[in-house]
Design a protein that fits this description.
CATH class: Mainly Alpha
Helix content: over 70%
CATH architecture: Up-down Bundle
Largest sheet: none
Distance between the termini: 74 Å
CATH superfamily: Flagellar protein FliS
């Protein structure tokens, strides 16, 4: 079942890379869609409704995060996908239609995987840059100590 993000997770998310935030939102959307499918199978109307509502909230946040000016065609395409999903979600509840949820998952999963890959690349690049910076600082300190240890004439 989908998870409600608690305060501890919010602090973690706030400290995370922006790309990681997007991955977390995709994970939440997919998990809540899967929960709606499970609820349909269980005949649990309330759980189905709650999961579908949660999906709508998450997809809306993804939509609102789009920067249409700088994102260009990619942002427009993502916006179209999000809009399609949001407009289809009511069918899950009104028609008890798990195919809508399955189709939304099929749309979201490859995008989520791409964001995950991007996030991993960003993290790796930042970690490498930080390691290089630390090596430069250490080398500068060693050089400074060596210069200080030389006798003055």
């Amino acid at each position: 079942m989908y998870t409600d993000i608690n305060l501890e997770e919010i602090e973690e998310v706030n400290a995370a890379f922006p790309s990681h935030l997007i991955v977390v939102l995709y994970d939440e959307a997919i998990a809540s869609l899967m929960a709606s499918i499970q609820a349909i199978g269980d005949g649990d109307i309330e759980a189905r409704f709650n999961a579908t509502s949660h999906t709508a909230e998450v997809i809306s946040q993804l939509y609102l995060a789009l920067d249409m000016e700088t994102g260009g065609e990619i942002a427009e395409n993502l916006g179209a996908i999000y809009n399609h999903i949001i407009t289809q979600l009511p069918r899950i509840n009104f028609a008890n239609d798990q195919q809508v949820a399955e189709q939304a998952i099929k749309l979201l999963r490859p995008i989520r995987d791409s964001w995950f890959e991007l996030d991993e690349r960003i993290r790796s690049t930042v970690e490498n840059a930080e390691a290089e910076d630390m090596a430069d600082v250490a080398a500068a300190l060693v050089a400074k100590e060596a210069m200080a240890a030389q006798p003055t004439l």
